[in-house]
Design brief:
Layout: H1 18-28, H2 31-38, H3 45-55, E1 57-59, E2 74-76, E3 79-81, E4 85-87, H4 100-110, E5 114-117, H5 125-129, E6 136-140, H6 146-158, E7 164-167, H7 177-182, H8 210-218, H9 222-230, E8 236-241, H10 244-252, E9 257-260, H11 274-285, E10 291-294, H12 300-308, E11 313-316, H13 318-350, E12 363-365
Parallel strand pairs: 4-5, 4-11, 5-6, 6-7, 7-8, 8-9, 9-10, 10-11
Antiparallel strand pairs: 1-12, 2-3
Helix pairs in contact: 1-13, 4-13, 10-11, 12-13
Length: about 375
């Protein structure tokens, strides 16, 4: 079926930074969508810490260090990226805009940004691939049946996705108070399109603990990681690592990359901020595989601080869907351009011609 063209929405006057997009999105989205897209687990302490961790760090500039060969290019798994900003996997983006993930993919392609599509996307991975640029990955949740997980993998391979990002930190849904207060439910017509036809994980009836007796018993294990890596030629990254010991295990089990993430504070509240967890993991990994991170990024200076703390690249989630809600594909492209411009400004003003020049010496922890 032919998809309708991407709607091009005007960026509102006065929306000039990511905070502006968040403010306007809060006004435009209905309470149901806003609770899902912006909320976190519990008291949302981790969500707040993610942002505050960046604010606690000052930048130390170096002066008189011009260089004619400056750039932001990186290489991941043999592929060139124009800059280290990737679109994080966010589920059900049609909650924010009718074009959903299709608009996000088109915007990412226009800004040369890597795209990570959620398993729980409200558009099929094939439809998104038709609009995405070449640097596209698929985020995976393991399905109850391995055959269904393998089917997702084969579909991703056929559609030209270049890597798989396995989320390992969410075997059970977080206790999200904001969603429960509004009685969150997906509106008619919005569903996880990539999972249509796959059976859902059954929840047993009984008087025992559903969480411990069912979800803990069926939670993914390192054996599942081994199985997935053995059944694809694509690089597999593990997303949701906060402990250096788990990073070491990930490498031992064949992970091609690590994503330092606390799920945006949406699974377990009072987990550490990802920026605080990043340096010890990067030190333990010691360059053996790429280390990506997400959580709390709202400025190009935040990206600079993440790279200085050991990240190879970063993923940006909530600001993308806020921009999508405000101005569709144009909004997402604008946010990605703002972040890249601000990162490049920070590099010039700290005397860093290339990303490899950025390091801990440029940071002052307050």
């Amino acid at each position: 079926m032919t998809q309708p063209p991407i709607e091009l929405c005007q960026i509102p006057l006065g929306v000039i930074c990511l905070a502006d997009y968040e403010r306007v999105a809060a006004q435009r989205l209905d309470p149901n969508a806003w609770a899902y897209l912006s909320g976190g687990a519990g008291d949302e302490i981790t969500t707040r810490w993610n942002r505050e961790a960046f604010d606690r760090i000052a930048l130390l500039p170096r002066i008189l260090r011009g260089d004619a060969g400056a750039h932001t290019r990186i290489e991941l798994f043999g592929h060139a990226f124009a800059h280290p900003i990737l679109v994080a996997p966010v589920a059900y983006q049609r909650l924010a805009h009718a074009d959903g993930e299709r608009a996000t993919a088109a915007a990412a392609a226009a800004q040369d940004a890597g795209l990570v599509l959620s398993t729980l996307a409200s558009e099929t991975l094939e439809d998104v691939a038709a609009l995405a640029g070449p640097r596209r990955w698929l985020q995976l949740y393991l399905q109850p049946r391995r055959a269904d997980t393998l089917d997702l993998v084969r579909r991703a391979e056929a559609a030209g996705y270049e890597a798989l990002m396995l989320t390992v930190d969410a075997p059970v849904y977080g206790a999200r108070d904001r969603e429960r207060r509004v009685g969150f439910a997906l509106p008619p017509g919005i569903r996880a399109q990539n999972l249509v036809g796959y059976p859902a994980r059954p929840v047993p009836a009984g008087t025992g603990s559903t969480v411990l007796d069912h979800f803990m018993a069926t939670a993914p294990t390192w054996d599942d990681v081994d199985w997935l890596i053995a059944h694809t030629q694509l690089p597999v990254l593990l997303k949701g690592i906060l402990d250096p010991e788990d990073a070491e295990l990930a490498i031992a089990h064949g992970a091609a990359g690590i994503v330092v993430s606390n799920h945006g504070g949406r699974t377990l509240d009072t987990l550490p901020a990802t920026l605080d967890a990043l340096p010890s993991i990067a030190e333990r990994v010691a360059g053996r595989v790429p280390v990506l991170m997400d959580g709390g990024i709202r400025r190009g200076t935040d990206i600079f601080k993440a790279i200085a703390s050991g990240a190879t690249a970063v993923l940006v989630g909530r600001p993308i869907v806020y921009a999508l809600a405000v101005a569709g594909a144009f909004g997402v492209a604008h946010v990605l351009k703002l972040l890249r411009d601000e990162l490049e400004i920070a590099m010039v003003l700290t005397g860093c011609a290339r990303l490899v020049d950025i390091g801990p010496r440029h940071l002052m922890r307050r």
